[in-house]
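Page 47, continued from p. 46.
Same chain as before, 216 aa.
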Amino acid sequence: MKKALIFQGGWEGHEPKDVAKILADILRKENFEVKITDTLITLEEDDLSNYDLIVPNWTQGTIMKEQLQALMDAVAKGTGLAGLHGGMGDSFRMETEYQFMVGGQWVAHPGNDGMTYQVHILDPDHPLTEGMEDFTVVSEQYYMHVDPAVKVHATTRFPIAEGPHQVNGEVDMPVVWTKKWGKGKVYYCSLGHIAEIVRMPEVIKLVRKGFVWASR
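Result:
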């Protein structure tokens, strides 16, 4: 049986405990043994190489250098890294090495929560999006700064909300991407502001496929 670690915490507005439970349920249905921790000390005390997948679910916050290094080393040696929304894409804002590994960083959500937007599936034949069609989300629309090395699997189009960014014209922003970090695979999905959004069938499907793909 494969093993997964979810570390949850940080800003409470993203409902980290509730989201962690949903993510753990997805993993258990894929026959993972799951450990959930609410302390980053686990990253330095556990042998992270024993995990096939690590799921960050920790918005903002700070991390000790030795904790971050242990995480990065484990992924480089082959442990998968996968997560969603601010729990992975807005963790540890001061840690550029973490952002380098993840492949991007949240910078804005024009219009805030409640924006209605489309998620466009780029390749319905890829294992991560196989059989999926475009769908609508009513939530935050994440504007990300993105590593050009990532492979993009789904996008959303800006602008929808009014603001000074509009003068730049239309841009297609990644929603789902993958990359490699050493021997490890990295998966990110920008959806999932709160538990209600994570429970959307389309999000569950994307995350499940992402977890399976990223796992060692």
